[in-house]
């Protein structure tokens, strides 16, 4: 339940009851602290899930992402899998940071043979507030719920932090401010977000991570998710990086955008692997770190019509040919963006696109039930 809904229910209670609710945040804080039992659960072995290509597994994640609840995403995932003959084994969903962890929804995804991947968005909280501990009671409550679920999850805090379009992001003035007025100004270039720095983001990430560990939520794969978009005045990605001990996967977002033209898009392999691509930037900036961390394409899609089948083919080929990539997440959504542009990333925009997805999704290395992965310590020690 989000804080907004908590406040609404509290106000409603004041109307129908003589008992005063008081401050909803304080009530929630007291309740959440009481809900954190001092228990020890069996530790989830994340090793086979962290590096599915290690130990002879060689199984990539075939992921999909939808708007809506985890249950709604699971229903769409199931429908897609039935048509293609291969069920995606990772389901990503988005949640406002500060709410409750949807244990029921995440378990439904897990029990259906997929890894739940929750992308949390701090839509109201400032980075300096998080660092200062103002919202620790919310972090600990959420982390306790994740811990008590007893299942592995992938988790991202404030994705696409290097972009100028989210309030927790960075104001690249050349893209988000210069020559723009009103709502056209990048969200990170408005109000208190203007003070955001890469170090603040890294410190906020570390603080959230540390609070999870204090509660004992060790069943989490931490996904650090930059966007492939760039601005001339954008800081180097390494400045946003919280450190090796705080990150399990690099989850890059990169879309094949067309703007109505079929010949002007950059294929996904160029966005990631080509000169100036995100993978090359990471390798250079982090002094060779990137190849040692698994890379998940955490968000991608193509809004083409004629070229979408070719884009799907290229995406699968990019993941399968590169040992550092462990899979991708297709954003299977048609939406209208803040600028008023409608983008259609749906797979089924044409029979040819659907046929391409079905063909390449059936490849045996993609997908598979994450619960079937077994960690082979001997094989891992031999570097397989």
From TrEMBL:
InterPro entries: GH, GH26_dom, Glyco_hydro_26. Keywords: Glycosidase, Hydrolase, Signal. Belongs to the glycosyl hydrolase 26 family. Residues 1-19 form the signal peptide. Residues 41-376 form the GH26 domain. The active site is at 160 (proton donor), 299 (nucleophile). This is GH26 domain-containing protein. The keyword Flavoprotein does not apply. It holds the Pfam family Glyco_hydro_26.
